[in-house]
Amino acid sequence: MRRDRSMMAQHKKSASKLHLINDESRAEIDRWIAKYPEDQKQSAVMAALRILQDQNKGYLNNDLIEATAEYLEMPPIAVYEVATFYSMYELEPVGRHKICVCTNISCKLCGSDDVVKHLQERLGIGLGETSDDGRFTLKEVECLGACVDAPMFQLEDNYYGKLTPQRIDEILEGLD
Fold it and tell me: Are the C-beta atoms of residues 89 and 83 closer than 8 Å to each other?
């Protein structure tokens, strides 16, 4: 019996994924945890996933999802459900520049189909694809909550609205 407990403790210790969270990310996650009641640290799950996605060059993997669950003391499946439900989380590598085009009703009525078509022609990729050089990923998203500027897209942390082909070209030409 003692040996079983020792083996289980050893297995649990070796299966820990906490070492995948670097010190900077831990500090940032802790700042989010501090915003909630002490027994509600799981409320920081969305922020923690974003932080770890940024730490991992733009995408999450199963080990990082498990590390998030362990750090927030949540079942891994609950964290996985969040990571797969929201469009801002990526579960595969993405290009250096991720372009999220809103195609919801306001953007659609204001020309998001033309925005998508122009981007596809200019970048040579379809929605959900990454360019061969790894520079761009083009993604369709449900709504970015900026209907007043429709049609629009999100590029990294910035929103760009009232898009035209000329405006899109100017934005893309300003990137590295």
Answer: yes
Beta strands 158-160; 153-155: pairing state:
antiparallel
Residue 13, CA distances (Å) to 16, 18, 85, 133 in order: 5, 10, 30, 40
Phi-psi group of 140: left, alpha or beta (phi > 0 → left; psi -120 to 50 → alpha; rest → beta): beta
pLDDT band at 124 (very low <50, low <70, confident <90, very high): very high
Q: Give this prediction's pTM.
A: 0.78
Q: H/E element holding 158?
A: strand 158-160
> Nearest 5 degrees, angle CA 169-CA 173-CA 176?
145
% pLDDT > 70, the chain: 92
Return the SS3 of 76: helix
CA dist 28 and 40 (Å) reads 17
On the CB side of 41, CA atoms within 13 Å amount to 16
**What is the C-alpha to C-alpha distance for residues 33 and 43, in angstroms, rounded to an integer?**
7
Residues 64 and 58: beta-carbon distance below 8 Å: no
| Spatial CA neighbour of 40 closest among 81, 74, 82, 80 | 74
Q: Which two tokens stand for residue 11?
A: 């297995």
The identity of residue 7, as a single letter, is M
